[in-house]
Amino acid sequence: MSAHPTGRSAADEALLALASSGQVPQEYLGGSGVAPNTEASEHVLQTWRTADCVCFDVGCTITRADGLDLLAEFMGVKDEVFALTQQAKDGTMNLSETLEEVLRIINCTPDDVRRFVQQHPPEKRLTKGIVNLIKTLQKRGVAVYMISGGFREDIMPIAKYLGVPRENVFANRMNWQWDDETGQPTRLSGFDESQPTAFNMGKIRAISKIREDHPYNTVVMIGDGITDLEAVRSSEGADLFIGYGGVVERSAVKEAAEWFVYDHDDLTRALKQSRVAMVGSSALACAMVPMLCHNVLQDEQFDNTVMMWVHDAAHVHEGRTILDIINQDHQNPKELPGVHLGDNLVASGNLEEVAKDADVLVFCAPHESMHSITRRLMGKVKRDAIAISLVKGMRVGRDGPQLISQMIRKNLNLDCSVLIGGNVASDLGNKELSEAVIASSSREMGAVFRKLFQTSYFYVDILQDVAGAEMCGTLKNIVALAVGIVDGLDYGCNAKAVVMRQGLTEMRKFAKTLYPNVRNETFFESCGLGDLITTCLGGRNHATAEAWTRAWKSGAPKTWTKLEEEILGGQRLQGVATSNEVQEVMRVRGWESTYPLFSTVNRIINGRVEPSQILHFCQANGIQTTNEDDDDTTIIPAARAPRQSPIPNPV
């Protein structure tokens, strides 16, 4: 049966009485005349899907009837309780007074409550689809709360059945008279008025308390009554109210709700499983995709299959194509041999086919290929998809420098986060302890990506400095070339420390000059100092630059292209391309002398000065160019005065 003949619970009847007497604003009752939203807008759906906290009313939302009304019926005083709430319409009692009087009429004992719970077990009281909805939310990592004007004595068995923690239940508590001889509770004696739900606007109070205790970004309230609707009418309350009419349809709630549903299964279906696609099959992509394949199986938010675009699908390795090997053996012997990619990975050589149905696009391809990739995908990805870039580098065009995340936003019109950290693909593939940051425009978006990437061996922090994190990941490759050259010359740790410190200084200054809002703190995160250390100690840019320098030192120099074939299996070295792109930005803007290490590295890798000049990046005297026709003599800055340090201090 459904609450009172009016279709309203005792608490709602009391609130209506208070509204009619002017003690509660009429706006809480709705009645705006706006057509109900039985179809959710894109904004509402996005809010629902990204919520990290969902609060449920209990009576007529989780259960098919209001618990207090059901208890009154069990005690044989249903009509008296209903008559009381009708009388309360004259406004002579507030909410706590009304509940006090209702309990006086019910006048139950602890034994009565126990018999009531036994006669009305939770599994027989629940509304259709509520168990599946709550389990789905919990599997997605969403915190579930129950907020009710009813009583814990009735609600706690329901919470236990649903797996909702005791501390996540906000409800009133009955007070009892205790027998002095037996030490046992015997008679009902009102209720505990210290609970937030004991007063008007109690659900706002409860949600405010929840927000105070937990850093939830998005809170959703679901309920059938006016007291639930009021929870969204305050900045301290919920971000979204979803009205539920599966038991009782209340016109005021239906009209005022941003979304009104009759079936909890509609809410579960709206929590669609997002499809994830990896765009790229490089060594780093193959190191990261096992995390995706594992995590999508743990979270109901994601489809169980991960797609991967393989750019060299037709490449033959030991008589089989790379595409066949990935799909059959779930390994990529060309890029990252010996690493299992995931049984739920499906690879394809068709870029458009991989991307068209993806809700989450993970880009991990060489940065010089990203412009053509995004151009190919223009108009061919879902409008509400989200993207994250693992690409380190920038593109320099006629309009100046462009970060890869900016390119994705511009060409695909997608919100794009970045994941940057100090990670060598082979170490990731071996599941060695590693970390990264996800820089996103919002913490909610960052939290979605953290679900996809964080594992027991891969720690992820969230930042809101996309440009700063991406610039760190781009510029550190130039510094890695410098350290590789130092190692190739067999210099010691002192020299490497000088180069790395100067490199970090120039990274920060260059990034903040291009993007003034970049935060200093970002350079000390894993995307900054962490990535710099890793790349300078064990990255491919360091290794190739060291080999290039040793070849020069031996008198048998090798080209970068030759070393890319020998060391990288034909892949392009990111540091060389990035250095040339950054140098072009500095040349056009007249910044060469401001960034002496960057400028010296670029001259060395392009054969304009010898590698031995790496430690003289701040001194013009003594540097001999190997190209006498080169008139670009202003790249190396003038010597400093004797009192000044040869290495500029951090700016």
Q: What features would you describe in this structure?
A:
The protein is of the alpha/beta class. Strands 13-10-9-14-15-18-19-20 form an eight-stranded mixed beta sheet, sandwiched between helices. A six-stranded parallel beta sheet has the order 3-2-1-6-7-8, with helices on both faces. It has a two-stranded antiparallel ribbon with strand order 4-5. α11 links the parallel β7 and β8 (259-261). The longest helix has 23 residues, at 466-488. The protein is elongated. It starts with 9 loop residues before the first helix and ends in a 46-residue tail after the last helix. Mean pLDDT is 85; it is low at 1-8, 14-35 and 620-651.
Short description:
The protein is 43% helix and 15% strand. With 651 residues, the chain is of the alpha/beta class.
Measured as a percent range, the helix fraction is 40-55%
Low-pLDDT segments: 1-8, 14-35, 620-651
Structural class: alpha/beta
Count the beta strands. Answer: 20
List keywords for this structure.
single chain, 651 residues, alpha/beta, 20 strands, disordered N terminus, disordered C terminus
Task: Describe the secondary-structure layout.
Elements: H1 10-20, H2 42-50, E1 53-56, H3 67-74, H4 78-87, H5 95-106, H6 110-119, H7 130-139, E2 143-151, H8 152-162, E3 169-172, E4 174-178, E5 185-191, H9 202-213, E6 219-223, H10 226-229, E7 240-244, H11 251-256, E8 259-261, H12 264-270, E9 274-279, H13 283-296, E10 302-309, E11 316-317, E12 320-321, H14 322-329, E13 345-348, H15 351-355, E14 360-363, H16 370-377, E15 386-389, E16 394-397, E17 400-403, H17 404-412, E18 415-420, H18 425-429, E19 434-439, H19 443-453, E20 458-463, H20 466-488, H21 493-514, H22 526-538, H23 540-554, H24 560-568, H25 574-589, H26 596-605
